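Sanity check

After download, print the first record. It should look like this:
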Amino acid sequence: MMTRTRWMLAASVGALLAAPGCYSSGAGDDVGEPDSRTDGDDTTETAADADATEVPADTDAAEVPADADASAGPWPVTFRLRFISDIPESVWVAAWDAAYPSGHWLSLSRDGAGFRKSPACDICMCDDCPGCPVCGAPCMEAVELRDGGSVEWFWPGFEYAQITCPAAPPATCQEERAASAGAYAARFCWGASVGGTSPCNEEILDPQCADVEFALPDPDGVVEYLIDHGG
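Expected structure tokens:
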């Protein structure tokens, strides 16, 4: 079930994609409802929107310039994942590294190809390469969503392409680009349970995903998916 009229495909997956362990909250913020369990950067605020309409005020990377050309992008979008159930149960989401699909409940693709929606802290930005500070491993602590709970992530509308470092080839760096207009797909993922050990070494078990198509520029800047277990 969705609250907006969009084409939707639900798909079960055997495992989330693997990716390097690197903490990055960049280019967007996760915001969870009060029943989210963790206290990390990705989930500490309360969204007035039960996946509602409020965008976090303080994104911690690539903010949209005030004088940005509206015809050329970037076009910000808020993504929301909601959960309802008619029995006492929870689902779990990853929210520890927005740069990689294995570390986040949301991934984006264009023409069937995924792209990095947030800067990775283990790769230099091209303006700083070849030398820049790098991050340590993220705190892999899952977020719990109970009946009526939700989580959201604000995307400023940039993608981060990995290219050859101009100052030191063949080293690579990441370049920030405004995402182009056109058709996209958002993949929302969650799990029925969580494994590993807390804190900082958890994993999402029994993962499931649902794909939602959207376009840039998006009419209202909001794309959401509802996990409906009855309610």
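If your output differs, re-run the checksum step. Summary of this record's structure: Confidence is low (pLDDT under 50) at residues 1-27, 33-65.
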